[in-house]
Amino acid sequence: MNYSNSSNLLCNGTANKHLDVLQAVNYEISWVYQVVYVLAAFTGLSLNMCFILVFMATSSLRTVMNQFLVSLAAVDSLTGVVLMVFVPFTTGEKAAWLCGLKGFTSCSTMVAQVMSILVVTVDRFISIVFPFNYHTWATQRWVNLTISATWLYAFSVGAVAGIQSLQAWHPGGICLITQIVAGWYNMVFIIHYVGLFIIMAFAYGKIGSIILHHRRQIAAAVAPEQAASEDLKIQLKVTKDVFVVVCTSMFCLGLIPIHLMLYHVTNLPLPKMRLVRNFFMLSNCIFDPIIYFLRFKDFQSAFKSIVGRIVNPHQN
After folding, report:
1. CA–CA gap between residue 302 and residue 311 (Å, rounded)
2. Which of 58, 95, 211, 253 has its CA 20 to 30 A from that of 173?
């Protein structure tokens, strides 16, 4: 790619006046990076799809918590597709609809990740803090409504970015979403991540205090029945595993609000930080399904069973 006209470097020249030709060269990505990037994105997509397929093929796995995790895996899968298709070739969209599609899909997936982590966190909070109400609340109808609302909200927020990208694009422009959407839209994203962090800190802090109390009960119990119920023990175990998943996701996705905040303050493109941010987003897509299979024994057993049936279809 060769950008010789600095006035045509961006979809929105007024909002990105600090990006000159020299800085635009930083967006030139070598073919080696493109190949590695696509392979990594494909790996993340494949792992998450494997996780989803195991869930679909095993009826015993279709618990409320696992359905929320599968929704999160679907978000990671979509993120892998978006990163694989758009990011390595980010500067050369040849039509307005491509830039609009990029804005819609990339922003939708980022919001969907935040909302899916929020849903998982709220589910764990209710299951531990209000265990007697959890089974009444966690009906299949409520799960379907929650997941549907999560995706509908994500697509609605992404549509705003898609419309702005569509309107801002012009021939020869660079379609960098964080730089062509309005400043208030970037702040909305920052608020999403900061709000999620605050809610997670409160929820898992409360859960942590209950876990400590549970351990003290076990240590002080004269008889096993004096300790917490078996159902609570199971919920605590699941919550610990989920905590690893959501904390890994928040660590990998944490560069997104930092990058947006720095851009909002400095109005500089920060191309290297953008690449690092995208690398961590890719890492999240790969790490999440690996953690699922390492931490959740039921998924391990189901996966081994499915592989065994594929390898030896005549085995009983």
Report:
1. 14
2. 253
